[in-house]
Amino acid sequence: MPRLTILSLTLALLASTSSAQETKPLAGAITPEAVNLGRPVDFDKDILPILENNCIACHNLGQQESKLNLEKIDAIVKGGKRGPAIVPKDPEKSLLYQVAARAKGPAMPPLPNKVDAKALTPKELGTLKQWILEGATGGMGGMKDQVNWQPVPTTAKAIYSVAMAPWGRYVAAGRANQVLLLDVETGDEIGRLIDPNLNAIQHNGKPMYPTGAAHRDFVHSLAFSPDGRTIASGGYRTVKLWQRPATNRTREIAVGAVVTAVAVSPNGQTLATAGADNAIKLWNLADGVAGKVLAGHAAAIHSLAFSADGAKLASASEDKTIRVWNLADGAQANNIVSLAPAKAVVFTADGAKVIVGQQDNIIRIWPVAAATPFAPEKEIKGHTGPITALALVLPAGTQILSGSDDQTARVWDLAAGTQVRQFAHGGAVNSVAVRADGLFVATGSPNNIAKLWNNQTGAQVAELKGDVALNRAVVERTEDQKVAQQFKALTEAAFKAAETNQKERDEAVKKANEAKTNADKTVVEQDPKVKEAVTKAEAAKKAADEKKDDAALAKAATDAAAEVTKQMDELKKRQDTVASAVRAITLAEQAAKSAVEQVAAAKTQQDAMTAGVTKADADLKTATDADAAGLKPVKGVAFSVDGKRLLTSSDDNLIHVWDSTTGKAIETFAGHKAPIGAIATGPNGLVVSGSADQTAAVWTTNPAWSLIGQLGPKKETPLDFAGSPFAARVLSLAFSRDGKWLATGGGEASRSGELFIWDVAAQTIAKEFKDAHSDTVMSIEFGRDGKHLVTGAADKFVKLWDIAGGKLVKAFEGHTHHVLGVSIKADNSLIASAGADNAIKIWNVETGEQSRTIPGYAKQVTSIRFLGVTENVISSGGDKTVRYHNAANGSQPRAFAGGTDFMYCAAVSRDEQIVVAAGEDGVLRVWNGTNAQPIRQFDPPKPPETTAQAAAK
Q1: Euclidean distance between CA atoms 873 and 752, whole angstroms
Q2: Which helix (H) or strand (E) covers residue 525, if one does?
Q3: 106, 577, 690, 717: which one has the fewest Cβ atoms less than 10 Å from its Cβ?
Q4: CA contacts within 13 A on the Cβ side of 214
Q5: CA distances from 65 to 9, 77, 108, 146 (A)
Q6: Quick one: 380 and 483 in the same domain?
Q7: φ, ψ for residue 53 (rounded to 5)?
Q8: Do the Cβ atoms of 487 and 827 come closer than 8 Å?
């Protein structure tokens, strides 16, 4: 929506008047009517509509006749070619008033005109005069910036923007005024971005945004920061910054001893910890306050377990006892004495029995209420090493999973005591877990590896090892290496071309010198001929002078003189050839010198890029070595209660989070200062860990994103856009690779193209590119090197900018309609652009020339991005399609089908494994990037039933 700032039209009309016309009184001057509004004249309410109707059409930001813009007071005061348009408190010296009164030429607006502008009425002129007399102030101000906001229709479902997190798992989608956070692996909506400032807004006595909203208007642009912790969303005259917490840790509890075991009550309210001091402590998870201390064990406590009803706690100890505690009073309900150290304990599903894994390789089952001393109800034998871990197989609870030092984990039928299945881990198993649905199990080992298994088939699903941050560092350094090699290849080609050019220039110098030598010879050869002709001419003239009446001698003299002229002309011609050869030598030598300099520069660049490759190789080796060194013994495994995550703890002081179905690494939780020996989970994403640093930490797998800043409005008035530097909707966003800068693009349609770079931390404008484009900036991307910015706009131009200098490097012209998307290859050699002219264009950055046009779309190409550090691009189009293309040869390796309406946006993971796209139908579609097969889709919510529809049921 263009900003309605209208004063600039009248001023521009005034400014176009010639000085001669200015002083010439006009017929038909308008006499102003006396105006008394009972209040000060308000610019927005009283003046702006007058100018809007009669002046702005020719005097606006986009069309400034006589360099005059009448849309804003500051622009009016500044004036145009003829100076200020108004002099506050003095209408007679105000050019705007004089030409509007038609008292001086040129009268404004001119009549007739093509924009249906009319001469001001006496009342309008009187209002203008009174405003100037009162000082020409802003009045109430900002009225035209105030929007009569209405609720976004519940039927609005189009997705105009998507952004993919750096490692491809999470996607942000802008559906109407909502921003959805989606997990493309699980198909879950993991959250929404909600601006709390919008919650209290009422409309017709009801909340305008009853389910919360990110923006008041459609979300037209989204971007993830490179670290994935910040999201920028662009709406009407604002950009909002959202962030997830820097840590998933919500609480730290000082246990006072090395933590050997932890357990969380089923309701997630109580934490039990066991310490190296042989004490069990209970904690309130809501506030971290310590509760009862359960004392009695005489040796290390290896395992803790709550009963399903949360009323009892069981503990297994090296002191060969298994104790059951009543949590209501902290009293010991039973003390089961066994023949071997107890390593693991769990309750049966009904809570009537405890199942214990012991040092003597046997699993034993005891009734909780049995008297002591007594024998176990059942013994399960089969392991050939100590039992180290147990987990009940739910939901049925009729089976138990055990882990042992014999390098196996086994599933047992509790009733029969027989083995159902065995998992060969390949190392001593010290921890086991079963997913809540019983479909997957996990095993952990001191051999640095955890494994995910299919509990139905016994097949290994994934091997889980290492630190995902270190793994990703290897990926990043590998990408850096590839880009460095690309840069090196480009500079090698440039160096070879420079060497070839130098040889050609040297050859040109040689040929120029040869040409001069030959030319010098012709001059030498001509000199005797000239001298001979002169001698003969002198003799002929002398003879003719002696016999003036001898016609024959006279003719001979004339002929001899002509021969002298002929020979002199020939000499001059040959001398000119010599001079030309001298000039050719000079030019050739200059070109040769330049070629030498070019070779030197190319060699310097090549050496720099070679050094870059060497550094990239070294950095990759460092990252690879660090990744290998990051392999540490696994101490614990646990599935989240919702079954979506698998968590492992290890000696690297980290909790590692994995996808519970695929085993893909997701993230790590950092904060402990020593190895983590115990881990447990609770409802609502709760995770608790116990460490040798004598603390227990509380974590969440579902950290909430929150609004941390807003660019545009003032911080104290976030809903007031009057002072926003954004003229209208922010249509494009991009973070720099280091995450420090955010580029924003937008502007007023057909009037301006805005381009800003913001300091993300300070939330201030770092650089403004004035008049970057003459129409709205539709797409932005930072170059990988952080030195350049590429933009595409509705003015049909693609532009490359130098960020440090804020200067235009190159403009690429060739599209015949809006440029809707741009992207620059990682090595800065190519730019890809998507146009509303149904074409993709590939541009050579070095030459500025178009390398190729890629046709094929039946409608507008709405977005484009290079895939990682490759030469492939992904694009989306209004013809419902999403496609891969090779920028180097224009080929289309694959297309992604399934769209049912206009596609606005697409994104792809850096490894090309996941492709997402969305459009007018409001569906976010997810494909396998390698084979174009659909994986899943996120449908828009169904519109609420009308009263009539509900009644019809």
Answers
A1: 29
A2: helix 468-546
A3: 717
A4: 32
A5: 8, 16, 12, 28
A6: no
A7: -75, -25
A8: yes
Nearest alpha carbon to residue 772 among 738, 739, 798, 734: 798
- Match 């807003």 to its residue by tokens: 710
**CA-to-CA distance for 406 and 356, rounded, in angstroms?**
17
**Residue 57 above 80 pLDDT?**
no
Q: What 8-state DSSP symbol labels residue 34?
A: P
432 vs 343: CA distance, rounded Å:
13
DSSP 8-state code for residue 47: I
Q: What DSSP string runs through 69-125?
A: --SSHHHHHH-BTTB-S--TT-GGG-HHHHHHTTSBSSPSS-SS-SS---PPPHHHH
The angle formed by the CA atoms of residues 491, 493 and 496, to the nearest 5 degrees, is 110
Q: Are strands 840-844 and 850-854 parallel, antiparallel or unpaired?
A: antiparallel
449 backbone dihedrals φ, ψ, rounded to 5°: -130, 140
Mean pLDDT of 222-231: 98
Q: What is the pLDDT of residue 819?
A: 99
Return the bridge partners of 355, or none: 346, 365
- CATH code: domain of residue 283: 2.130.10.10
Domain count, the chain: 3
How many Cβ atoms are within 10 Å of 848's Cβ, its own excluded? 14
- pLDDT class for 370, splitting at 50, 70, 90? low
- If phi > 0 it is left, if psi is from -120 to 50 it is alpha, else beta; for residue 727 that is alpha
Give yes or no: residues 507 and 454 share one domain: no
Q: Are residues 510 and 577 in the same domain?
A: yes
The pLDDT score that the predictor gives to residue 19 is 37
Whether residue 15 has pLDDT greater than 60: no
Cα distances from 459 to residues 152, 447, 454, 462, in angstroms, run 50, 20, 5, 9
Residue 427 has pLDDT above 90, yes or no: yes
Q: Given 103, 122, 145, which residue is the final one in a domain?
A: 145
Distance CA 855, CA 891 (A): 10
- The phi and psi torsions of 729 (rounded to 5 degrees) equal -65, 140
Q: Which residue has the higher pLDDT, 642 or 103?
A: 642
Q: What is the DSSP letter of 746?
A: E
CB 124 within 8 A of CB 867: no
**From the CB of residue 174, how many other CB atoms can be counted at a distance below 10 Å?**
28
Structure tokens at 636: 């614990």
- CA distance linking residue 751 with residue 748, whole number of Å: 5
* Tokens 């993300």 belong to residue: 760
> Quick check: 409 and 385 in contact, CB under 8 A?
no
Is position 208 within any domain?
Answer: no
CB of 815 within 8 A of CB of 831?
A: no
Residues 305 and 437 in one domain: yes
Tokens linked to 893? 């390796």
Percent of the chain with pLDDT over 90: 80
Residue 948 clears pLDDT 60, i.e. is over it = no
CB atoms within 10 A of CB 504: 13
| 443 shares a domain with 403 | yes
Same domain, 306 and 383: yes
Q: Residue 506: helix, strand or coil by DSSP?
A: helix
Token code pair at residue 325: 């505690």
77 within domain boundaries: yes
Report CA-CA distances (Å) from 786 to 241, 474, 824. Answer: 21, 21, 12
Host domain of residue 257: 250-467+633-700
Q: What CATH number does residue 489 fall under?
A: 1.10.287.620
How far apart CA 475 and CA 911 sit, in angstroms, is 10
By the 10 Å C-beta count (0-12 exposed, 13-18 middle, 19+ buried), 289 is classed as exposed
CA pair distance 84, 66, nearest whole angstrom = 12
Residue 269 confidence (pLDDT) above 80:
yes
Among 117, 145, 173, give the residue marking a domain's end.
145
pLDDT at 800 exceeding the cut of 60? yes
Asked if 615 and 573 sit in the same domain, the reply is yes
Residue 46 maps to a domain: yes
- 390 and 487 fall within a common domain: no
**pLDDT number for residue 249:** 96
